[in-house]
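note to self: dont lose this again. the chain is below, predicted strucutre after it. 69 aa total, dont forget to put it in the shared folder this time
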Amino acid sequence: MAERSVGLREVLLVAGLSVAVVLGAAIATSFLPKALQEVVFRSPLLIVVLIVGTAALLWGIARPRSPGE
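---
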């Protein structure tokens, strides 16, 4: 089985997508009413989202791959 290395193109693609998601979330939050903005910024909601997202990413990296992938 050949090892596949990650190239600069893949790294830049993931980085660009990450920036786009964060920018999109910031823009979407700006359209929320002030009361909902307070919930987003003053509660642990962002921390929960980051923990769940990180766990999902790490699980996806750590899970075994089938031979066909």
